[in-house]
Amino acid sequence: MARNQRSIKTSFSMEGVGLHGGQPVSVDLRPAKPDTGVVFVRSDVVDSDPIPAQLSALVKGQRRTVLRRGPAEVHTVEHLLACLLALGIDNLEVELDGPELPGLDGSAEPWMAALASAGLSEQKASRRTFTVERPLCVQEDGAVINVVPRGEPGLSLAYTLDYRERGLAPQMAEITLPGGDFATQIAPARTFVFASEVEALREAGLGAGADETNTIVLDGAQPLHGELRFPDEPARHKLLDLMGDLFLLGADVQGSILATRSGHKSHHALVRCLAEAMEHEETHGRLVRGTSMDIQEITELLPHRYPFLLVDRVLELEGYKRAVGIKNVSVNEPFFQGHFPGQPIMPGVLILEALAQLSGTLLLRRMEYTGKLPVLWAIDKVKLRRAVVPGDQLRLEVEATKVRDTMGRVECLAKVNEHVVAEAQMVFTLVDAG
């Protein structure tokens, strides 16, 4: 079952220096409306568009995650996004006056503490969900990431770090969401680098803001300065990065992800793989919640209630393309009292209403319309072929033939005992639910 979207309750600010660019930056984080997503706004770039934390904005970046929209970029977003994934924060406006988020202490702990202080605000719209139903695998440059179904709700993540060639023995870190102790076990893990890499990274223009306060420099398994926060701190930080990159999918994943020797490049390949699988399932009939809906699930989508809820059950769902439902026609229906006394017949307009409600259910299930309400706009090619009487069971069949951002066209049939009793073509406009 999809959860409700969330934002933060109150705004807050952070400041610091970017890890790689070394530039000072101030950041303001503000609540955002449902379905906004997480957007970055560069206040120092004139007339720049908001940069969404989505796969579509992802561009190539060395040892960090970089997003771009037009001339504006934002670098090193993964630590903040990992916190948002852990907390289930979906909508947020992040305004900054530089190209890179502050590195802070090299971990996600300061972000996590600030977000927790700001509080969470639950919103009415539902969060998009992707349930893993078949194994997936990404292999790139020696990294392997396996994604497999999970026998229970939630997301489990495991990361295996293996730098034996650099004197660091294999380590493993894992967490399960929701419920895992991200704040104390993963968020405090800091960025690390091997001493043998430092010179090359400096020559590449990276790490200009890195120092002993925000970056662990390892000589084999030992830090050159200070102490590790955890014996397996490097593995925990890699898991942190994986979580931040996974946020770019724009959906809660239900399944298990097992990553070995992966970095940002392979994480981004994973997100692309998951996005393709999610699109396939949403458009080819594989469903998030199964192939039927009972009355409780129907009422979670439709605003209608007795005596005007005219769909009793959804029998079949083929992705977001087609639905089949039933309406059991009882002699106790209130409209039979006046239509007609002594010869009860279900009004044809109510048969059409039942078809419209099933069509609305189909349209509301489309994740991109979360927070929208389909309102009947036009009916065409209506034919009422047979009378429907008490004791009949209406079989309702609807198929979406054209769906755009603000409208949907649906072909509708109603049958009793395989005989067509009504048919119509309906057009819906999709408006903001209020």
Main features:
6-stranded antiparallel β-sheet, 25 strands, lpxc deacetylase, domain 1, single chain, 6-stranded mixed β-sheet, Thiol Ester Dehydrase, Chain A, 8 helices, alpha+beta, elongated, 434 residues
Concise overview:
With 434 residues, this protein is of the alpha+beta class.
How far from one another are the termini?
22 Å
Q: What would you call the shape?
A: elongated
* Cα gyration radius (Å): 26 Å
* SSE class: alpha+beta
CATH topology (level 3) name of the largest domain: lpxc deacetylase, domain 1
The multimeric state of the shown protein is single chain
The overall pLDDT average reads: 91
CATH-assigned homologous superfamily of the largest domain? lpxc deacetylase, domain 2
| Name of the CATH architecture of the largest domain | 2-Layer Sandwich
Please write the CATH class name of the largest domain: Alpha Beta
What does this structure look like?
With 434 residues, the protein is α+β, with helices and mostly antiparallel strands. It has two domains: 4-283, lpxc deacetylase, domain 1, CATH 3.30.1700; 295-432, Roll (Thiol Ester Dehydrase, Chain A). The protein has eight helices and 25 strands. The protein has helices at 78-87, 109-118, 182-185, 198-203, 233-246, 264-283, 295-301, 348-365, and strands at 4-8, 12-17, 24-31, 38-42, 51-52, 58-59, 66-69, 72-75, 92-96, 120-126, 129-131, 136-140, 143-148, 155-163, 168-177, 192-194, 216-219, 222-223, 252-260, 313-318, 322-328, 372-384, 393-403, 407-416, 419-432. Strands 11, 12, 13, 14, 15 and 19 form a six-stranded mixed beta sheet that branches. Strands 20-21-23-24-25-22 form a six-stranded antiparallel beta sheet, with helices on one face. β17 and β18 form a beta hairpin. α1 (78-87) packs across α5 and α5 packs parallel to α6 (264-283). Residues 285-290 have low confidence and may be disordered.
